[in-house]
Write a structure and sequence with these properties.
Blueprint (H helix, E strand, L loop, with lengths): L1 H4 L2 E5 L2 E4 H31 L4 H26 L4 H18 L1 H16 L7 E4 L2 E8 L3 E6 L4 E5 L1 H5 L3 E2 L7 E9 L5 H14 L12 E7 L4 E9 L5 H18 L19
Antiparallel strand pairs: 1-2, 3-4, 3-7, 4-5, 5-6, 8-10, 9-10
Helix pairs in contact: 2-3, 3-5, 7-8
Length: 277
């Protein structure tokens, strides 16, 4: 057995790879994998009992995985006889050199750790950043994957979440409020307009109907060619809210037709002056 474990697979100057060291390396990696599985199960159950949000759980478990695999890699290198202190000292100058050219990369790594620790942005959150409304798919150390409303996957550097102004629509447990604007002719019965808008809002399944989130209507302005109304409502379907608004507009047009309510268009009156010869 000793002869098998001490059998040299690779011999390069002072580095010797034997069967025994390779077995130890595999055992360390397997132990790290099993430890991560056990910790993931225990942490999931513990955080679920404490009603920790699922996205926050994913961030904490992901960060735990990074720590375990880092220590596993260090122990694995030591089991192969690699001097970690010498490796770190010899690569320090190299790291300083490349660090000047990779400042943004390191900034993204640090930002990723901050995002994972704070949990301000996590998986399944709907956020608005750089004018985009996106749904967070995964937060990694350097970048995050998000999905747009057109179902396109976009890779965002993590420093965007730290340096930019980010609106997290799902950070609070309360639903979000939205508005829908529509103008009607000045000859319209404003009470019929109000009731038509409320009826359309009441029939849509994605709109909340309970107090204090019951839809209501405002007369916003006396426009140049229309009376401007605003339908205010609350919904939990934040990521697909544009589809909800489109469905409401279809319903409003039908309701206005049934009640003979006209949506005016801008009219311009031109006066032609007559010039004597």
């Amino acid at each position: 057995m000793n002869e098998i474990l001490n059998y040299e697979i690779l011999h390069l100057s002072s580095f010797v790879l034997t069967v025994g060291s390779l077995v130890v390396l595999l055992l360390i990696l397997a132990g790290a994998f099993l430890l991560l599985k056990v910790l993931t199960t225990v942490l999931r159950r513990s955080m679920s009992t404490r009603l920790v949000p699922e996205g926050r759980q994913d961030s904490f478990i992901q960060l735990t995985g990074y720590v375990i695999w880092t220590f596993g890699a260090i122990l694995g290198l030591q089991s192969l006889g690699v001097d970690i202190t010498f490796l770190a000292a010899s690569s320090a100058a190299l790291l300083i050199g490349i660090g000047l050219g990779l400042q943004n990369v390191f900034k993204d790594f640090v930002s990723g750790i901050i995002v994972l620790l704070e949990g301000t942005v996590k998986a399944n959150d709907v956020v608005e950043i750089d004018g985009w409304v996106v749904k967070v798919k995964e937060v990694s150390l350097r970048t995050s994957q998000v999905v747009t409303r057109e179902d396109n996957v976009v890779i965002i550097p993590n420093h965007k979440f730290i340096e930019e102004n980010v609106i997290n629509w799902t950070h609070n447990a309360t639903p979000s409020r939205f508005e829908l604007n529509v103008g009607v002719d000045y000859t319209s019965d404003i009470r019929k307009v109000e009731q038509a808008l409320l009826d359309c809002a009441g029939r849509h399944s994605d709109l909340l109907q309970d107090d204090p989130h019951r839809p209501f209507v405002r007369l916003m302005n006396f426009g140049s060619s229309s009376l401007d109304f605003q339908l205010i409502f609350w919904s939990d379907n934040m990521f697909r809210i544009e589809t909800v608004k489109s469905q409401l507009r279809f319903a409003i047009v039908d309701a206005f037709h049934e009640r003979n309510i006209t949506i005016p268009f801008t009219q311009v009156v031109l006066h032609q002056a007559t010039i004597a010869p």
